[in-house]
Amino acid sequence: MLAKRIIPCLDVKEGRVVKGIRFVDHVDAGDPVSMAAFYDEEGADELVFYDITASSDNRNIMLDVVGRVAEQVFIPLTVGGGLRSVEDMLAMLQAGADKVSLNTAAVENPNLIKQGADQFGSQCIVLGLDAIRSPQNSTPRWEVKVRTGNGGGITTGLDAIEWAKQAVDLGVGEIVVNSIDADGTKKGYDLDLLRFLSETVTVPVVASGGAGNLDHLHEALELGRADAVLAASIFHFGTHRIPEAKKFLASKGIPIRP
Predict the structure, then answer these.
(1) What domains are there in the chain, each with its CATH number?
(2) In sequence order, what are the residues at sequence separation of 6 or more whose Cβ sits closer than 8 angstroms to the Cβ of residue 180?
(3) Known catalytic residue: 215?
(4) Is the entire prediction scored with pTM above 0.70?
(5) Does residue 25 carry a catalytic annotation?
(6) Longest distance between any two alpha carbons in the chain, whole Å
(7) For the segment 204-220, what is each residue's pLDDT rounded down to a tens digit?
(8) What is the pLDDT of residues 238-257, one digit of tens each?
């Protein structure tokens, strides 16, 4: 069985790492460059960098900050936010990213996924999937939401599971699924969403949104069948540390890198 991964997430706004609840009420969490270096030393398996307002502000990602973050880490780095073209993806990879994450631009132009996968390989292309539960359905259903960085965003009506399947067919090599309902609440991941998605697609699924303690990480990996867990608040503010999380998960029988 492949080892599960622990991935800290740097949500960056105006050059600083921030954390909010459902993308609003952001509080400062620190400098992205120094935090990246810290997580590399802590033994994180990967690192994700999101320029969270690039799409909602209709601007390009902060290339200089990405470059300085990449210089600090020797683990895989995924970068997302405001990437709208193959040229944008290339710029991120040249700046030091190992993978690029597409969200809003992919929904608006699905062929962008295929273009990226054809150019750089599926292993480089990550789907960032912001999903919100639809209250109108008796059976669980989630819709795709885009341009979420400033807390508003647009609910597209697109079925999240169906969109994920289409994205995989187009060449996505991994999916980071963020539950808008759970984001920043520290009440746990949306396990139904994780399970539905993990049982549907053939690529690794990374859980995002809602981690408040180590049990939540375990639940996402065990019950949600995720391949990795993304977390921010519990690591940024010192509630738990990466080595502690790895030791805990290993004690639960989860295959984890030491």
Answers:
(1) 5-251 (3.20.20.70)
(2) 22, 23, 130, 131, 132, 145, 148, 153, 209
(3) no
(4) yes
(5) no
(6) 48
(7) 999 999 999 999 999 99
(8) 999 999 999 999 999 999 99
